[in-house]
Design brief:
3-stranded antiparallel β-sheet; 3-stranded mixed β-sheet; mainly alpha; 376 residues
């Protein structure tokens, strides 16, 4: 199916209405986040509307279904941005669910709607991004023994635990494992995993945290090394783009809150929006928004034409700015911004979670060193 710019715009307008009317309504009280039942209902509605792909067999215009044209990529990131403007936690959930479906399709796995709604994706290893070793493998060529050891340990699912943020009722897990000289994949039933509930995480209050590792032997899906590298490269880029788009949506929400509050809160006989210190904060938020807008526009290209290093560099550049902007949203609100029922406090925590996802942004520097040929 072909998705052109006009189609993309119409779909995004409809998705924007759904986000405002359904998701934002349920997320209106930050101190009472969307619960598991509500999230399941929203996910069902998203499946019915085609926002999320209904199965691996049916094709439509769901998130991450099409990645081969610029309009399709603009739709994917725009959709996640709209959803995150209402709830970053819901957007993160659907981003990973849609990516899991995309990987399952590439692997030739047949999954129906019931399987898909319970499917979760872990796109990386148990820590960081395996420094420069992952980048060197993605670039191709022979790996040194140290790189193979690093990647084998990074994707060792039996010895190490991996943190998963997901709805409570997830059933299947799709994750990469190291197969001697390349990455392959396992589709594992929850019953075959050792699963331990984590304490409340920093953000994404809509989800639960789990530590998971393989309880026994797991069978990997056979694939050729070059296909493996291409698949993982595409997934790496799509995940980074999705995280940036969700951060942009959270920023949109925060900017709306900050501007509205600054316009009505008065101090010294005038609205605080007239005070230079508040203007500076509002300008910081706008600068971050301009940066993420330019980054997402520049990266709205077919996935195979995107340079992996450019995507990684964009995320390393943008994520700290988004966190700073979220903090400025909270500062505009003064003391009330720290209260859990106000909204800005949750946005700060959600932006921090996005920055830490998929290895965090610190590891991107080591990844880029490996990608550009430096030692890391």
């Amino acid at each position: 199916m072909h998705l052109d710019t006009e189609d993309s715009q119409r779909l995004l307008e409809e998705l924007g209405r759904f986000s405002r009317e359904r998701i934002a309504h349920l997320a209106a009280r930050p101190h009472r986040p969307i619960d598991g039942r509500q999230l399941a209902l929203l996910t069902g509605e998203a499946l019915d509307m085609g926002i999320l792909p209904p199965s691996t067999a049916e094709s439509g215009f769901g998130i991450w279904e099409h990645c081969d044209t610029a309009p399709a990529m603009a739709f994917n990131t725009g959709a996640l941005r709209h959803i995150a403007g209402a709830s970053p936690g819901v957007a993160f959930t659907w981003h990973r669910l849609a990516l899991a479906r995309w990987v399952a399709v590439q692997l030739g796995q047949s999954l129906g709607a019931d399987d898909l709604t319970g499917l979760q994706l872990v796109p990386t290893g148990h820590y960081g991004l395996a420094r420069g070793s992952l980048a060197r493998w993605l670039r191709g060529g022979a790996l040194e023994t140290a790189d193979q050891a690093m990647l084998s340990d990074w994707l060792d699912r039996r010895t190490h635990t991996t943190t998963l943020y997901a709805p409570e009722d997830w059933k299947l897990l799709l994750w990469p494992v190291w197969a001697g000289v390349h990455v392959t994949w396992q589709l594992v039933d929850r019953q075959a995993l050792s699963v331990r509930a984590e304490k409340a995480q920093h953000g994404f209050d809509e989800l639960a945290g789990f530590s998971v590792n393989l309880a026994g032997e797991g069978s990997a899906i056979a694939m050729a090394p070059e296909i493996s590298r291409t698949l993982f490269t595409r997934l790496f880029k799509l995940d980074m783009l999705g995280l940036m788009a969700i951060g942009a949506g959270a920023l949109d929400q925060g900017q709306t809150l900050a501007r509205a509050y600054a316009a009505i809160r008065r101090q010294g006989g005038r609205a605080i929006a007239a005070h230079p210190a508040v203007q500076h904060m509002l300008s910081d938020i706008e600068i971050a928004r301009q940066r993420i807008d330019m980054a997402l526009a520049a990266l709205a290209q077919p996935v195979d034409t995107l340079d992996t290093g450019a995507v990684a560099a964009a995320r390393a550049n943008i994520a700290p700015a988004l966190c700073h902007a979220a903090n400025q949203v909270m500062q505009v609100h003064g003391g009330i911004g720290y209260m859990r029922d106000a909204g800005p406090e949750k946005l700060v925590r959600d932006q921090n979670m996005l920055k830490l996802a998929s290895g965090g942004t610190r590891d991107l520097h080591a990844f880029l060193a490996g990608w550009t040929g430096a030692c890391a």
